[in-house]
Amino acid sequence: MPAAQKTPHHHLMPGWLIHLGAIGVFVVAALDASPIPLPLPGSTDVLILLLAAHRGNPWILTLAAVTGSLCGAYTSWGAAKKGGMGMVQRYVPERWLGKLEPQIKRHGALAVGLACVLPPPIPLMPFLLLAGALGVKRRPYLIAVGTARIVRYGAMAWLGATYGRRVVHAWEQYLSGWSEVILWTFFGVLIAAALFGVWKYRRDKQRGGYAPSDSPSAPAPAGREEAVSR
What we know:
It comes from Silvibacterium dinghuense. The protein is mostly helical. It has 9 helices and no strands.
């Protein structure tokens, strides 16, 4: 009997990306919690799920995501603490400010932690910026962010390691020939968005900075509704 021919198996993610994926998770998580908005809500969750499903170490992925998110959240808090409500209004639509500002004033770091653990469409960046502008203390703020992110990203890593392989196997089977195109398009959008966000953040700073934190809130530019990062 002739030996059975082996059918080529196309992996959704290349091997080098699986091994170096924790670095990408760190970068995306940091951007996701920074003043630089990403256009795809839940980008960090998707990366963790995919990498864990491809036998990435769930503990390392969770650690990378939590650490990156803490770095980004600290950047947002520090920038808003320095720039005050003037900066917040540059990045947060007025319709969100009226709803979220009372919650931060009343619950402080607890409100931030809840926003960090909940999935979209709950926005994250407005909470982080408002916490800095409204004087939430650094230590409870970082504890709330870190605890919430451990819960959320740990759950994502567990789901990816436990159930994600079945989903990825079906994806590779039914989207054969297109899976890599979809994957690289996803990464291309993330890279383009990150570059645009860095350029926009630097441009806004060069335009004269932000109003002091103790000054009245400056009116937002007419017709401007910035996308809120998750």
